[in-house]
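The following block was generated as part of the benchmark described in Methods. Ligand: zinc ion.
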Amino acid sequence: MIEVVDKLLSENRNANYLAICPMDTNGKCLCHECAAVETEEGSAAGPILRFANRIGEAIAQKYPDVKILAFAYSYYQEPAQKTRCGENVIIQFCASDFSMFHAANSNENKERINSFLSWRKLNPSTSFWIWDYNAVFKDYLQPFPNYKVVDENIKFYAQNGATGIMIQGDGYNTATDFVSMRAWVIAHLLWNPELNYDALKNEFMSGYYGKAAPFLQEYMHMNEKYAMDKNINFSLGKKSMDFLSPEAISRDSELLAKAVDTVKDDPVKLARTEIARIPLLYALTIFAVDGKMNAASCKGWNFKNNAEAIAELAKRFKEYKIINVEFSNVADSARLIQMLSAAEARPANQNIHQSIKNKATSYVPIVNDKEASDGLAFAIPGNTKEWFVQYRPPAELSQSGPWHCYADIRCDAEADNGEAATVGIYDIQTKSGKTVSVSVKTIKGTKYKTIDLGIHELNPDKIFYAAPANRPLNQLKTVYVDRFFMVKENAKPSL
Ligand SMILES: [Zn+2]
């Protein structure tokens, strides 16, 4: 490990920090040595902190400006009782299972915040960082009225010895519940935690939304009130729209229609206000699809039926390039996705299923590409072989197969020969699959090529993936992935 760290740092001379932490799983080491250290330290953080300290010691002389980050997170959240943080080691405390509707120092988070305070007490002389969260990772687009909590948290951490704070919000969508306001206010508070939250919020809202601001503020206030009345309590990885009701959605929609009306002659502010409306429209469609509400009865819109509300949402998804929608609040997500696909006039029917971008998992940017089926493509740099675009087919496909599977990909390359990418289907249960190697010759250029992945029975354990061929960028610049799609075998519709 020390050799790996040395290599990484020698190749990245500008790096100031290197995080040493286990991946996001609960699979801690069960060996006798680690178990003994854990007992000695009273926490699973013991072995991890000692490990980080050893690496810190090993690199201190050669890389005096580099700090090692050791997390306090997950199963190793509780402080190590015996070992102290090394001189060039920073603890980053992750507020991952905090109730996100309650401030860090509230009663609801008492136990967790005590763990932060005791870490700090045990390691008073070291730098100490916080990793806090400000998004619903299970369903980014849902209304999430915890606006003020982040202010209380930043102030609390700063007053209690945090020397660095990172707030992780939604990095994917522009339409997440007041995401611009959150980013602006959070940035200001991180510069100066003593600033007044309400003053910052009001300044942003009136500057950014103009005359629509009072209606939007009223909407935010109403949602805060609904959530408080229901005492909503959920942590990272959970989601909930229980604080909303059909009456609340209708009342809120009416407020937002008024907001839109005040800025109808100002295209910039109008677009911003329309974007602010998306989470509520999303909530409305979810309530409608799940049979809890009829969109036609919702004030503020003139929908004749649920399909019109869904079509409106689909239109906005496309217009504002909303790419990361989990649909996890909706009971019948397959139905909503199907209706969205239909509304977008994609070639989707009961015989054709395709991965829409917001359902694929990716670790790479989505870029505009007019040749792609929906004008967007995943762009993977050519110098990796990671499965950076993956798609897990929905469960209902398992009852209706077999499916003939395809991938639409292309690449930008200087090279004319050799491999460009691999695409395939991998069964995570049986650890087997089908891989198709695709040559540069086949997919080079601006047009997408359809790669035949063969005929398969599908289920959510069979993951579609695409990966570049790991070549130098001057040979293979970018592999673009448009979509995976499946045609029901024996149906043979025309595409
Ligand atoms: Zn071990």
